[in-house]
Design goal:
By secondary structure, the protein is of the alpha+beta class. The protein has one domain: SecB-like (Bacterial Protein-export protein SecB, Roll), CATH 3.10.420. The protein is built from 3 helices and 6 strands; from the N terminus they run H-E-H-E-E-E-H-E-E.
């Protein structure tokens, strides 16, 4: 596996050293919980909602099988935008596992390998799981007879372009629209936006 010549490689440089040798083999949902925390009628009366997104990524590699596993814990909390977000109106939590076949020899060992894997989870893991997460949120909201919740497409995080020594942790929280796309021009994970509840 090639190593970047930069003294402080970015997450993308570290992740690409892994990504060029992998194929996504399996994606499966292992846990999901959706909780409507107020009466549906109360939620439908609100004119402006806010969607808060969170994620936590973990990555490991089974040396004997050459399989890289990413565990993605994702959440979506819906708040009344005018209520100071005291507590969510709707909370959805899920966990996915993504398995990749690693098709190369000579991977780094120990802490050096984990550094590459952590970057791979933050970059490729999030990017690969995001369409599944978006579909799950929209599907669950429809099954609960609520207006469709459209999670924005995943965008590049500025922190991931910085040297890995100062990169973001595996956990992150962002804001996004309910029922629309982010209109923020920054290239980052879905960011602050607001949208009216569609009835």
């Amino acid at each position: 596996m090639e190593q970047t010549q930069r003294e402080n490689p970015t997450d993308y440089q570290l992740a690409s050293a892994i990504a060029r040798y992998v194929e996504l083999d399996d994606v499966h949902l292992i846990d999901v919980k959706a909780s409507l925390l107020v009466a549906k009628a109360e939620m439908l009366q609100l004119s402006v909602l806010e969607l808060e997104l969170g994620r936590s990524m973990a990555c490991s590699m089974q040396k004997d099988t050459q399989v890289i596993s990413v565990e993605a814990k994702l959440k979506a909390d819906i708040h009344n935008q005018n209520d100071g977000r005291a507590k969510p109106l709707l909370s959805i939590n899920c966990t996915y596992v993504l398995n990749y076949k690693f098709m190369a020899k000579g991977a780094p060992e120990g802490a050096e390998l984990q550094r590459y894997l952590d970057a791979f989870a933050r970059v490729n893991g999030v990017f690969n799981i995001w369409p599944y997460f978006r579909e799950l949120i929209q599907s669950l909201s429809a099954r609960m007879s609520l207006p469709p919740i459209v999670v924005p497409v995943y965008r590049v995080s500025k922190e991931q372009e910085a040297p890995s020594s100062v990169t973001e942790p595996s956990k992150g929280t962002t804001k996004a629209k309910v029922g629309g796309q982010s209109n923020d021009g920054d290239l980052r994970a879905p960011t602050r936006a607001k949208s009216k509840n569609r009835r």
